[in-house]
Amino acid sequence: MATSIITIDGPAGAGKTTVSKLLSQKLGIIYVDTGAIYRGVAFEIKNQNIEWENDSTLEIFLEGLDLNFIKKNGSLLLISSGRDISKFIRTPEISMLASSSSARPQVRAELLDIQRKIAKTEDAVFEGRDMGTVVFPEAEYKFYLFADLAVRAKRRYDEMPNKVKNINKVEQEMQTRDNNDSQRETAPLKPATDAIKIDSTFLTIEQVVEKMLRIIEKA
């Protein structure tokens, strides 16, 4: 494993993606959005109309899955069977399906290899929900980023290009996802026992990153 692995876990809307990207830029290492991998699985489940709750169907689907990252201009693109699907995986529908399907042990086991292979060759910031607890329990630096639900919902709502949904609907869906992620039996969303918790409710992205950099530089 590479010497500098930083994990940033937390619920949706806490600012993980923006923080992780900026932190990786400041440190000169790559950023890996592990949630994108699960979204990629969800995208292909929907695209191929897979009955993913059926164990045998899911196993056959996962065996045929060709999902990986390629590095381009310092960023990682998500590739499925040779096709860049990065721009198709950010819809609310795919987000909810990713949350549900990622609870299946077969899915998580299959995708662990992709994440750990990257860590063997690259210093990186890994963003997700179980990076510090399951995927990289020996990571050098672990952070858990969180914020009040209403604030997270407003952030996600503001990011949506098409604001047909009302903000109450966004908050309800986010609460549902929080419950799904934290209550699942396999790799539930929770901070690692040795993770440094940062409440981003009243902090800017830059302030969060500065906090992380101070901790990393002190070590």
Describe the protein's architecture and organization.
- The structure is a single chain.
- The protein has helices at 16-27, 34-47, 55-63, 92-101, 105-121, 131-135, 149-159, 167-183, 205-218; strands at 5-9, 30-33, 67-72, 75-80, 83-84, 124-128, 141-146, 196-199.
- The longest helix is centred in the middle third of the chain and has 17 residues, at 105-121.
- The strands form two sheets. A five-stranded parallel sheet has the order 2-6-1-7-8, sandwiched between helices. A three-stranded antiparallel sheet has the order 3-4-5.
- Helix 2 (34-47) crosses helix 4.
- The two termini are 19 Å apart.
- The chain has nine helices and eight strands.
- It has a single domain (5-201), classed as Rossmann fold (3-Layer(aba) Sandwich), CATH 3.40.50.300.
- The mean pLDDT is 90.
- A hairpin with a 2-residue loop joins strand 4 (75-80) and strand 5 (83-84).
- The protein is α/β, with parallel strands linked by helices.
